[in-house]
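Title: Comparing notes on inverse folding

I've been comparing how different people in this forum approach sequence design from structure. To keep things fair, I'm posting one structure and asking everyone to reply with a full sequence. Here's the target:
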């Protein structure tokens, strides 16, 4: 076999192996889609709450609406990468603006959990369940 044919065969085999690795990696990491209505259970040093979040995911970006008897109504911005999710909500507490940040993991199609920071004033944990 001449060198040019050997080179071509080697190149084709290398491309097929690379394609196989990409497909295997894509199958190993399930695609997360958090679009929908979520009920959160939040516990912090400042108290507890059960806000409702309505999320819309487009690619890795998340937008939506936050509703809570404690912190009121607000818009949500965030992102999801793999199983990791980050949500940011701008709210006012007694006239003072704060950014509430949720950082967590999406454990299944219908559950997530992680930590929450209330603008540096309090922190705690959350669990979320899709409604």
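Reply #1:
Here's my take.
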């Amino acid at each position: 076999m001449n060198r040019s044919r050997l080179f071509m065969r080697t190149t084709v085999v290398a491309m097929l192996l690379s394609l196989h690795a990409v497909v295997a990696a894509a199958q190993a990491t399930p695609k997360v889609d958090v679009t929908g209505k979520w009920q959160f259970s939040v516990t912090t040093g400042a108290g507890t709450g059960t806000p409702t979040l309505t999320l819309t995911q487009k690619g890795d970006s998340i937008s939506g609406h936050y509703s809570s008897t404690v912190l009121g109504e607000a818009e949500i911005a965030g992102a999801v990468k793999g199983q990791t999710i980050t949500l940011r909500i701008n709210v006012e507490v007694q006239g003072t603006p704060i950014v509430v940040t949720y950082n967590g993991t999406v454990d299944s199609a219908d559950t997530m959990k992680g930590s929450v920071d209330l603008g540096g004033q309090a922190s705690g944990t959350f669990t979320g369940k899709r409604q």
